Each structure stands twice: as structure tokens, then as C-alpha cells.
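Customer escalation, tier 2.

The customer says the design service returned an amino acid string that "doesn't look like it belongs to this structure." They asked us to rerun it and document both sides in this ticket. The original C-alpha cells are below, unchanged.
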């Protein structure tokens, strides 16, 4: 009988502990649960990007390339990732002129378009580079190759190698054909200047002689006067 009483007391104590624990859990302050939801920072917006074709000829192939392929792929990938973002390219043309290219870049800036593909010619990239760097714009170029534009800390991102190795190759080619003296006639722009600046020392290092250097205007169509000077 005594053992039974002890057993009943023990059971009652356990029941009290269980009830007390349950009541305590229910009455305890509820912890705040933080749920992080990832939201794309540009959700619901249209991101405009620029594209400046170097010439009117290039413009003919630019529109289908940019609109039908690039822009389409950007938006398809954005949809696949579940981002509520639309990409739109604004296309313009530099008409073969570095000054016009700069004007187009400034026009993009006025529209708050700060990333663009352009500077297809090194002269065009050079004309716009300082403006891009000063105004926090990013210029992507697929074909600018002048070594003179290999600058640290600028805002030009080039997707092709420079012409640093082209000049030594030209010097080697000339020397291999037995040419010991040359007259250099080259275009007055950063692309040709870059090659010239590397070609002269490379050729002279082999023992070659540069007899004359004639720098003609980039927009020149007649060369009689330049040839007479040579």
C-alpha cells in the first residue's frame, strides 16, 4: 500500500511537470522570426543600354544583331531567372567621325544611359574616353585595338587584344624581305599612332632606317599632296 502511494505521488509529480512545461511554453514570449525575401534591386524597371555603330555600313547589321539577338537573349535570360526586369538597347551611329561619337555618348548621358557598346574605332573610343571616365559611364568596345588606350583606371573595357604585337610583326616582315629603309604614311588617329609608335623602334632596332613619316588626316580622300611630300 505504501509503495502504491509512492507510485501515485511520483506519477502526479511527473504529470505536474509536463503540464507546467506545456503551460510555460505557451506563456513564454514568442520569438520574432525574420524572413528574408530576395528582391531584384531593379525589379519592375526597364534598363536602357546604348549601342553606337561606327559607320552607317555597320549600322545596317547592328540593328538585327542587337535587337533580334542580344536584346532578345537578355530578356529571355532575365525571365528565366524570374527577374521582373526588361532590357532595351538604344541604337545610334557615329557616321565614321570621332566627334559625332562623342556627341552620341553625351546624348546617352543626358538620358541617364551610362553603359553602352561603342568606340568601335580607336579614334572614337579615344574621343569619348575622358568624358566616360569623368561621368561614370562604361564604354565597351569590341574592336578598339590602339595600345595608346591601354590606360589604368579608365572606363573603357575592350574585348579584343591591342596592336602591341602587330608593329614588331610588321618590322620582322619588312626585314625578312630585305627592306632596310621605309617611308611610313599613316592615318592621324589613335589606332595608327599606336602602331607607328611601336613600329619605328622595332624596325630601327633591327638596323632599319625610317626615311620619312607622313601623317595624313583621317577623313582624307585625296592623297596627292601627301605623296608629293614623300
Amino acid at each position: 500500500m505504501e509503495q502504491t502511494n509512492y507510485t501515485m505521488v511520483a506519477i502526479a509529480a511527473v504529470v505536474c511537470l509536463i503540464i507546467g512545461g506545456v503551460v510555460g511554453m505557451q506563456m513564454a514570449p514568442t520569438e520574432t522570426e525574420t524572413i528574408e525575401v530576395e528582391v531584384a534591386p531593379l525589379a519592375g524597371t526597364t534598363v536602357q543600354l546604348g549601342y553606337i555603330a561606327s559607320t552607317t555600313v555597320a549600322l545596317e547589321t547592328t540593328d538585327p544583331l542587337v535587337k533580334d539577338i542580344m536584346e532578345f537573349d537578355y530578356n529571355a535570360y532575365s525571365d528565366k531567372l524570374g527577374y521582373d526586369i526588361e532590357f532595351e538597347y538604344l541604337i545610334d551611329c557615329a557616321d565614321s567621325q570621332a566627334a559625332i561619337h562623342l556627341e552620341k555618348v553625351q546624348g546617352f548621358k543626358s538620358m541617364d544611359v551610362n553603359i553602352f557598346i561603342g568606340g568601335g574605332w580607336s579614334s572614337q573610343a579615344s574621343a569619348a574616353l575622358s568624358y566616360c571616365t569623368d561621368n561614370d559611364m562604361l564604354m565597351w568596345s569590341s574592336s578598339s585595338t590602339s595600345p595608346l588606350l591601354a590606360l589604368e583606371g579608365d572606363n573603357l573595357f575592350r574585348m579584343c587584344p591591342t596592336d602591341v604585337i602587330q608593329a614588331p610583326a610588321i618590322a620582322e616582315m619588312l626585314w625578312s624581305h630585305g627592306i632596310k629603309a621605309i617611308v611610313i604614311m599613316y592615318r592621324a588617329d589613335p589606332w595608327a599612332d599606336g602602331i607607328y609608335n611601336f613600329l619605328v623602334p622595332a624596325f630601327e632596332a633591327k638596323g632599319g632606317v625610317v626615311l620619312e613619316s607622313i601623317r595624313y588626316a583621317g577623313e582624307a580622300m585625296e592623297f596627292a599632296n601627301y605623296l608629293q611630300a614623300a
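Tier 2 assessment: The sequence is consistent with the input. The longest helix spans residues 2-27. The helical segments are 2-27, 56-80, 98-110, 122-134, 166-176, 190-205, 224-229. Sent an explanation to the customer and offered a walkthrough call.
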